[in-house]
Specification:
Elements: E1 6-8, E2 13-15, E3 20-27, E4 32-46, E5 51-63, E6 71-74, E7 78-81, E8 86-101
Antiparallel strand pairs: 1-3, 2-3, 3-4, 4-8, 5-6, 5-7, 5-8
EC number: 2.4.2.1, 2.4.2.2
GO molecular function: guanosine phosphorylase activity; purine-nucleoside phosphorylase activity; thymidine phosphorylase activity; uridine phosphorylase activity
Family: Belongs to the nucleoside phosphorylase PpnP family.
Length: 103
């Protein structure tokens, strides 16, 4: 899949000492997505807007808000994180992802 008629912010978003990086893609409509890559590790993120995380490669175990267990998400799967929430994840090898933000 590819995106057409977009702008890409050249500067990377870098987290966790470079273990997580992404680039912001801006659509003509103003919609924003990030395309990113995560290396092995345990991570905790906070959201401002609702996010849909689409796994493009690899897999990750995620504990979403209100859940007591981690769920494994693999290539081709996605999950939604509510706005103003925090969630945790474990990456065993790597994850290639696309994150979409709800306005």
């Amino acid at each position: 899949m590819e995106f057409k008629n977009v702008s890409v912010v050249k500067e990377a978003n870098v987290y966790f000492d470079g273990k997580v990086t992404s680039r912001t893609v801006v659509f003509e409509s103003g919609e924003k997505k990030t395309l990113g890559f995560m290396l092995e590790g345990d991570y905790k993120f906070n959201t401002d807007a609702e996010e849909t995380m689409e796994i493009l490669g690899g897999d990750m175990s995620v504990q979403l808000p209100g859940e007591s267990e981690y769920t494994l998400y693999k290539k081709g799967e996605s999950y939604v994180v509510p706005a103003n929430a925090s969630f945790e994840m474990t990456v065993d090898k790597y994850v290639d992802y696309c994150c979409s933000y709800k306005k």
